[in-house]
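User: Hi! I'm working on a homework problem where we have to compare a predicted structure to a textbook description. Could you give me the structure for the chain below?
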Amino acid sequence: MKRLRAMREPLKYVQGKGALLKFQEEMGYMGKRWLFVCSNSGYKACHDKIEQSFGDADDYRRYEVFGGISSKGEIAKMQAIVEADNIDAVVAVGGGSAVDTAKATAYYSGKKVVIIPTVAATDAPCTGLSVIYNDDGSFDKYLFYPENPAAVMVDTQVIADAPVHFLVAGMGDALGTYFEGRASIRTESPSLEGTGITRAGMALAKLCYETLRDYSSQAIVACQNHVVTPAFENVVEACVYLSGVGADNVNCAAAHSFYNGLTSLGGHSAPHGNCVAFGTLVQLVLEGVPEEEFVDVQDYCLEVGLPTTLAELGVTTDEQIWKIAEAACVPGETIHNLAGDVTPDELHDAIVATDAMGKALRGE
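Assistant: Happy to help. Predicted structure tokens:
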């Protein structure tokens, strides 16, 4: 029997300039006792707007400034607060780590979760999973949930006020969505959620890529000037919603496995999305796509400031490349969704070739 096809997405998605001023109006149906799991910058950017949305309401609001990664220790700490304070709903305010921590906290506590991303650096807000790390910062596992967040609220002025490099990283994460989905559907791999891949999921993934290509340069200029324009709104939607819901309902492939392999080096500082963008180029080499398509995607990376060489990710030795290749090909990694599968030797060679073409593009 063939795998059942399915679609998953947040129950509610709200996006726009000043959206947080309507937080209570849009989310109040979830209860009256709130735990906000905030990054330091997220607290500063959103606290006053969220508070303003409550007006004279007597809702209980607890803001916890979250200081690290989505680790087992942080999740346990937040879970204890939910129980002690009789919280109705958990709200993430911040980037990927705060989002993943709040999702896990809500899941283990049996509560609803609302996601307020303060940067568009990853597609984590809409997905039904968290990336969980060990307390030492190394990758532990993907934690899959039975449903996606109850709601996602994106205040595009908050995103526009964040440094532009976060938006560019989001473009990199979103760039992989279509190509990883295309690879997965070719091999009839399951979606990220373990179901058959729908045409709707693939359509979102393709629209994500088309939106990036059409509007990214204009969106970068808007972000550099802290203004919200239609092009900026389009790209934020691509990075947060189209990429998140798209990836959830298609799957990852080599691009995200490359990132996971890179984390095995320890201490890398390149943003997740930048690594995924380079991993997307590596995947295209592995797939043997025509030069025209590879160059098209490579030119896009160069246009928006995403890496086309390993040096931009802090990788400088062949020993490091081999370590990435070995770690990216362990059993269970999404690179095995590619047709014909991939060995560490094949991945190593594709990484070297991608880097060489990137250097040539830059005249190095």
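For your comparison, note the following. The chain has a mean pLDDT of 94. The chain has two domains: 12-161, 164-361. Good luck with the assignment!
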